[in-house]
Each structure stands twice: as structure tokens, then as C-alpha cells.
Amino acid sequence: MAEEKTDGSSATAAAGGGAPTVKSIFIYPIKSCKGISVSKAPLSPTGFVWDRHWMVISSKGRGSTQRVEPKLALVQVELPLEAFSFGWQPNNSSYLVVRAPGMAELKVSLTKPGLRSDGVSIWDWSGSALDEGDKAAKWFTDFLGKPSRLVRFNEESETRPTDPKYATGFNVKFPDAFPYLLISEPSLDAVNEQLKEPVSINRFRPNIYVSGCQPFAEDLWKQIKINGLTFQGVMLCPRCKVPTINQEDGTQGNEPTKTMMKFRSSKVLEVDTTTTQFKGRVYLGQMLVCEDKTNMGKIVSVGDIIEVEKVFPSYADVAV
């Protein structure tokens, strides 16, 4: 793939004429459940600390997402504020708190569980995971109306590599593909200008939400720096059905995807889809990896300036 290196002035132009900044940071402790907005987030080798650390699985061990279980959109989670400080270790009174309409509050201890579930799978990865026990299993079984369990990624015994076609040498826990997803506020605004009813950013589930750039400028960000950390843009995010699910009530429609097909499809953007499995999708957001493998002790904070260091020359050079 061709790439264009930028100096300071052209980097500013690539960003859209000003200095983009981090507007919001979102962590999603349980895959496909509601996110948490935080003012700062420590990095780990697999992404932000606590992001997609847990996952709900079916009776067959398959990861449950809103694509199949839209009610997961209604599940709220809470972590102790101090859990986002480096060096913090949970004790017996540290909990992940889970809430949902019509359900009693569930408290899941943050200390390591003793149970293990084998045969856990998500996409093309399978392995074992730590099992949060029968109480959590009953809670999610009752809420979803089908046998379910809550599992935690087992960092001590398991690794889940990213797709080497896009990024080699990186690992994740339970996200779909990559450690980070970045979307800009101007991009969401541009989408909403085309919709009869605007949607919230929670439909698109970014980790890093950016302001201060032109709409869709992030599409072409090949390399950026945030607080001294170097991130590589590895793939435009092909959107599944989750953006069509109302995150307030769990109902599904056809927007914003129906309208976005008119201006954010692979055909309109003229991206190269010859080798991708994600054909016929719309795109919003850039998926990232952090090049700084020794990022322990590093933090991304709301208000951090984003330095755009390299951009792709055109959409034909962007991975999809």
C-alpha cells in the first residue's frame, strides 16, 4: 500500500485544518453491552484496560453480540473509578456491577474467578476463558431468555492475535477485530445531516471519539500520535447491523445503514474490496493498533491532541 508522509503543515491539512483532539473515551467492559465514558484510559498490550474484558456466551460457548441478542444493548456496567489507575489491584470488595431493566443488580467480583469454561469462541478464535460462576450465568440466562454464561478473557493462558492480513504481532481480548476504534464527531455530524432522525455515537461504539477535524478525515489517517503513543490505522471499519439497533430500547430498524449506503459504501468510496470478506458494507471509523508495545504506564486522556503523522493518498490505498 502506498502511504504519504506528512510534515507538520501537511499533517494539519490532513487533519482538516486544525488540531484534532480526543473528545471522549469509551470502554466496553462486557462485549456488546453499554460502554463507560471515562476521562482517561490506561493502555494494555491488548487495548484499553478493561475493554471487552468479559463476554456473554451461549450454551455452545459462542460469544453473544447485539447482532443476535439486541437486548445486550440495555445492559449497563459499572467499574470502580480507581480501576482505571495504573497499578491498581482488585480486592474482595471490588466489583463489576451489572444492571438491566427488570433485573436485580448483579455484582461480579473483580478478583480472578476459579472456574474455567472451555470451548469458548468468537469469530475464528476459540480457547478457554475464566467463568464468572452460576449466579452471573443465571442473571444473563434470565435476561436473555436462553442459557448463557459470563466469561472473562484468560490473559495467563490465552492469546488472540489480530488478523495478520492487516496487522501482525498484535493481540486482543474480545473485540471483533482490533484493539481500538476511532471515529470523529464531524463524521457523525455528517451522517446525521443525511438522516431524518439523528443517531448517537453509541450506535457505532468507538473507543476514541475525536473532534476538530473535517468529516471523515480519519478515513485516511495512516499514522497518528496521541500523548507520545504511535497508533497505526489498519482498516476502515465495516459496519454490521449493530448501528441499526437503538441503544436505548434494543429495537432494530434499517437506519442509519440504509442512508449511509448512498455515501459510505465501498462503491461510493472507491475502496479496493478485491481481497476483503466484508463486501456490501458501509464504513465508518478507523481501526487502530498501538505500535508502542511497551505501553504500560501510558494513558490517553480527553483533551489530548492528535498529531497526524502519515496519511493514505487515497481511498484505494486504505485497507477494508
- What's the mean pLDDT score? 93
Q: In which range does the helix fraction lie?
A: 10-25%
Describe the global form.
Answer: globular
| SS strand fraction | 25-35%
Alpha-beta classification: mainly beta
Low confidence ranges? none
**Rg:** 19 Å
Number of helices: 5
Question: How would you portray this structure in words?
Answer:
- The chain has helices spanning 8-15, 134-144, 185-193, 257-260, 266-269; strands at 4-5, 21-27, 36-38, 40-44, 47-48, 54-58, 76-78, 95-99, 106-109, 115-122, 125-131, 148-153, 180-184, 208-211, 221-226, 229-239, 282-290, 299-301, 306-311.
- The chain is mainly beta and 320 residues long.
- A hairpin with a 2-residue loop joins strand 4 (40-44) and strand 5 (47-48).
- The chain is globular and about 50 Å long.
